[in-house]
Write a structure and sequence with these properties.
With about 70 residues, the protein is mainly alpha-helical. It is about 75% helix and about 0% strand. The protein has three helices and no strands. The longest helix is centred in the last third of the chain and has 20 residues.
């Protein structure tokens, strides 16, 4: 469920939450939208299980939350 990409997802959304974005609605649209986009991309890196995609969104949420928390 978690892999190297999970670390990348966490760091990416932590930095975005820390320096760029505070709006949870925009975050959710971008995060879930990317995971949905990966379903139609023809590349092998986008092939993953549903559990892994849900794990990615969870890691994204954690990274974004902690990034926003570290702003204060």
């Amino acid at each position: 469920m978690f892999n190297l990409w999970s670390v990348v997802h966490f760091l990416q959304w932590f930095l975005i939450g820390r320096f760029l974005l505070r709006n949870w609605y925009v975050f959710l649209i971008l995060s879930i939208g990317w995971e949905l986009l990966e379903l139609v991309l023809p590349h092998d890196f986008a092939r993953e299980s549903t559990a892994n995609k849900l794990g990615d969104v969870g890691v994204n949420c954690l990274g974004f939350y902690l990034g926003n928390l570290s702003k204060n």
